[in-house]
Here is the input.
Amino acid sequence: MEKKQVVIIGAGLAGLSAGALLARKGFQVFIMEESGGAGGRARVMEKDGFVLEYGVHSFRYADKSSAAKVMAELGLTPEWLREDHRGWLIRGKDLFPIPGGKEPVPEEVKKYFHREEITVVKEALEKLALQAPEKFYHKSLSDLMGDALKDEKVMLMTRLIGLQVMESDPARISTGELVAHLRRAYDAGVGSAQLKGSSRVFIDKMVSAIAEAGGELKLGCRALALEIENGRVKTIDSSEGQFEPEVLVYTGPMAYFLQLAGPSHFPEKFVKKVKRLEPVSGVAIDFALREKASELKGWLIEPELGIMGKFPSNLDPGLAPAGKQLSSWLITLSPDQMADPEAVRAGIHKLRGQIKKIFPDFFALVEWERILALPIIDGAALTTRQSLVDRPSVEAPQVENLFLAGDSVAVPGASGEIAVASGIKVSEKIAGYLGGKLL
Ligand SMILES: Cc1cc2nc3c(=O)[nH]c(=O)nc-3n(C[C@H](O)[C@H](O)[C@H](O)COP(=O)(O)OP(=O)(O)OC[C@H]3O[C@@H](n4cnc5c(N)ncnc54)[C@H](O)[C@@H]3O)c2cc1C
Here is the structure.
């Protein structure tokens, strides 16, 4: 049995952020990661000179993001490549500019949306933005927009905006979550950005900061079970032996947390909350293209099918060899669809069909592709049932030395922003907890 001060399960964005910040504060950090590398769902791979995120990725809020905050704390000010807020709406084989970008749309570009539907959606959201988002966590966008959604274009605009937080169904999306995101994007002056050099800039910085501060990252080490006694985590069984932590942080999928820890140690309300968490899921395909298929820099979005794509190497040429191009796409599918191989195949077929409609020569340019069928893209969809106030808190109830981080806990943001922000929050809570014990 090895004694450890802070043990973190998982080296994704949440575990790495928490680990690096705690190590820097002088705590002894030990991270166990079951896979062979760091980064979790934001890990990066390199092949034939292409640098591939784990599916299409951006950071929300650029230099105003939690990732920027953590990196600044560790002495790194990276370059953010801001994505055009506008992007392109896909309708069949046509692309139309999405309203909202800073640059005026040139006259010769055909528009899909006109003043009327833009005004309806804009006014509804602006009215809400003046109020506190927490009033609307349990209200869906359809609750608030009512009959306006009968207009096909208003409905499409609403879906498009919802996809900024990965939920395109106005009947499900938490208006409070969406308004909170839009306010932050407005304050940051940008919805999303690529980190120049990819997410591995962030991941590598966290890994080196942990090592420099004397922390340890153990790859290929799987947490198997927790022993909880008298309201404390006593031991962790892992594939590499047993550990006795003063503090434990769990950052893996919440669906597995109860298996690891056993539900009987927690209040029923918490167990229910964890059990009903529903992720965003879907299929991501990355294509290595031998030639450029497009010069577009913004996102391309088909809101009814939940399709999103971009050409990350147009913004960051370092992501593909000279003259070649990286193109990354995603189709969101429900967890039920993901459990059905036929539905997954149909989703992939739809995604390919859509790409071919816009870029008829695309598939002739593909050198190779990588398909990822993902039961969890984001830990918790930002629906009215699992908004900020419904997700589990970072302090596990009734177990004083157990903390939860990752993209499904109750921290503001969306997707990876939640993961990193939860790492920051957990590091502050743990510093307080361990500091308090020393006094
Ligand atoms: C295709 C795709 C596209 C995305 N696009 C975006 C985007 O554009 N913008 C954005 O902000 N977010 C995006 N996300 C979401 C973002 O990647 C995640 O929110 C974030 O990476 C989650 O980090 P995490 O630390 O919470 O979890 P994870 O990355 O899942 O990390 C958890 C780690 O714990 C390890 N682990 C689990 N169980 C155990 C165990 N028992 N023992 C040891 N280790 C264990 C896992 O191997 C993993 O490495 C996307 C995700 C995907 C999949």
User: Anything to note?
Assistant: The chain has a mean pLDDT of 94. Residues 121 and 157 are 7 Å apart (CA to CA). Residues 114-189 form one domain. The chain has three domains: 2-42+198-277+381-438, 114-189, 280-378.
